[in-house]
């Protein structure tokens, strides 16, 4: 699996998790977003060029509000990408959140 794919000026990241960040959805979300920031930078772009995000939560009822608070601190007010957030079974029991972001390369 690739962590990043670039095609025709669009950067696709794989879903990022942070099972090593403990059992706190806020910490896991911050860790996921830090990984995404690093991947986007490696690809030559940033969250300023984000187009779309998909967020999977292990327990949307319990964790949406806290995850969303971290997301709102991370996302830029002038560039809010489209986003879908759903509840899903995770690959490991310790994973509370997984995030995937698609961004454009700067022109």
Automatic annotation (TrEMBL):
Tree of life domain: Eukaryota
CDD domains the UniProt entry points to: YjgF_YER057c_UK114_like_2
One Pfam family cited in the UniProt record for this chain: Ribonuc_L-PSP
Transmembrane segments: none
Natural source organism: Emiliania huxleyi (strain CCMP1516)
Family classification: Belongs to the RutC family.
Protein name: RidA family protein
């Amino acid at each position: 699996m690739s962590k990043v794919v670039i095609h025709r000026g669009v950067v696709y990241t794989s879903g990022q998790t942070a099972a090593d960040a403990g059992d706190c959805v806020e910490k896991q979300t911050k860790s996921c977003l830090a990984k995404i920031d690093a991947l986007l930078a490696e690809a030559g772009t940033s969250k300023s060029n984000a187009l779309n995000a998909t967020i999977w939560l292990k327990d949307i009822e319990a964790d949406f509000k806290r995850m969303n608070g971290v997301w709102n601190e991370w996302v830029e007010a002038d560039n809010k990408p489209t986003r879908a957030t759903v509840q899903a079974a995770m690959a490991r029991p310790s994973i509370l959140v997984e995030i995937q972001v698609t961004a454009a390369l700067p022109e």
